[in-house]
Design a protein that fits this description.
It is elongated, with a radius of gyration of 42 Å. Helix 1 packs across helix 2. The strands form three sheets. Strands 3-4-6-5 form a four-stranded antiparallel beta sheet. A two-stranded antiparallel ribbon has the order 1-2. A two-stranded antiparallel ribbon has the order 7-8. The protein has ten helices and eight strands. It is an alpha+beta fold. Among the domains are: about 60 residues, no CATH class; about 90 residues, Threonyl-tRNA Synthetase, Chain A, domain 2 (2-Layer Sandwich).
Length: about 375
């Protein structure tokens, strides 16, 4: 097929050639006859197409290359060319964008240089009224008045951006219907009566249908976690004071809890204790603050990256917003040398932030002696 097609192609308007004075057909007699017959029945355009197809088929048969492999190679070549063209186009567009930004920056710089600087007049700050003189109680040695010290305002803290309530409400409704459907797939009928969204966990109050045993629902925690695509699910059965079951599901997007929101809440602002610390929010999203003096212990635990250091820093900052230096003093020990060093230099420190283990031992021994001395003096005065 390749030989016949090649001979016919050579006879395609090629004429004759001379060899030692003899005239020969370029495609030979066979090629001439085949081309003339094809041309007679298919016309010149059809004959040309058929001859090209014969050449391609002959080449494929001789080289033993499949059409699929040829198409695959052509596709890869085409993808490579298109990818190279796209990369070149993106680079050129990025280059033009940078050039445009640079030109705009130069124009803005010229405008700033041409305009005179704006002089900001500092507002006149009125001195606060002198505090009333009151009878001072007996103080310990380290309690010294540091003068005119003002508690930091809440305006120093940033506000946390709130999510769109409408979108969040629609998402909670969809999750409620999905939870009902998944429970129904496991043979548990019922409905979600109430949803309590929190910063990290959302609680769905599920009322089972009559005749459904609670033990049957509690045994579906792992199956529900897989069905709801959650890391884990906690089932509280039943909720205290309610005839419903609480299903706690972690949120896909966790809410950022701002310190300013906790400090402005009644739980913190309404507390009279100088040792009130901000703890965060509960699973219902209600701000939580508590008096450190009433806590026998406070343990902060969690895996790496869960926010233990952030929580500790928030507690220290909440004390700084609540108490003056003569009311609360800190003794900070930071062997890691990275967590508490930002508090170096605050007036509430009894001693600079301790980073050496040996110095930490001495400081803790001093604190023990100080507390024993205080208890002794309190016992002598008969007070608590």
């Amino acid at each position: 097929m390749l030989i016949v097609g090649s001979a016919a192609m050579l006879s395609w308007d090629r004429g004759n050639f001379q060899f030692f004075g003899w005239n020969f057909l370029r495609g030979g007699v066979l090629g001439y006859l085949v081309f003339q017959q094809i041309k007679l029945y298919l016309n010149p355009p059809g004959a040309h197409i058929l001859l090209v197809v014969m050449l391609l088929v002959g080449l494929i048969l001789i080289s033993r290359v499949s059409l699929a492999r040829l198409a695959e190679r052509f596709q890869l070549w085409l993808y490579a060319r298109v990818g190279a063209w796209r990369d070149t186009y993106q680079k050129n567009r990025e280059r033009r964008r940078k050039a445009k930004v640079l030109s705009v920056g130069k124009e803005q710089q010229k405008e700033r240089e041409s305009k005179p600087p704006l002089i900001v007049q500092n507002p006149v700050v009125k001195a606060p009224p002198a505090p009333k003189v009151t009878t001072q109680q007996e103080q310990f040695v380290f309690m010294k008045d540091l003068g005119d010290y003002t508690l930091p305002p809440l305006s120093l803290l940033d506000d946390v951006e709130k999510r769109d309530q409408q979108i969040q409400q629609q998402s909670l409704i969809m999750n409620s219907r999905l939870l009902e459907k998944k429970l129904k797939d496991f043979g548990v009928e019922g409905q979600v009566l109430e949803v309590s969204p929190g910063p990290v966990i959302t609680m769905y109050e599920f009322e089972p249908a009559p005749g459904v045993k609670i033990s049957r629902i509690t045994g579906l925690a792992d199956d529900l976690a897989m069905a709801m695509r959650a890391v884990s699910i906690r089932i509280v059965a039943p909720l205290p004071g309610k005839a419903v079951i609480g299903i706690e599901i972690p949120n896909v997007l966790r809410e950022t809890v701002g310190l300013k929101e906790i400090l402005a809440s009644p739980a913190f602002a309404g507390s009279k204790s100088k040792l009130t610390i901000a703890l965060g929010k509960d699973i219902l999203g209600i701000p939580v603050a508590n008096n450190l003096a009433r806590m026998p212990h406070l343990m902060i635990a969690g895996a790496t990256g869960t926010g233990k250091s952030v929580s500790l820093n928030a507690m220290i900052c909440s004390l700084l917003f609540k108490a003056r230096p003569e009311e609360v003093r800190f003794l900070l020990i930071d062997p890691k040398r990275i967590e508490l060093l930002p508090f170096e230099g605050i007036p509430h420190l009894l001693h600079e932030v301790v980073t050496e283990p040996k110095m930490a031992t001495r400081v803790l021994r001093w604190a023990i002696r100080e507390m024993e001395d205080r208890y002794q003096r309190l016992a002598e005065k008969g007070v608590r």
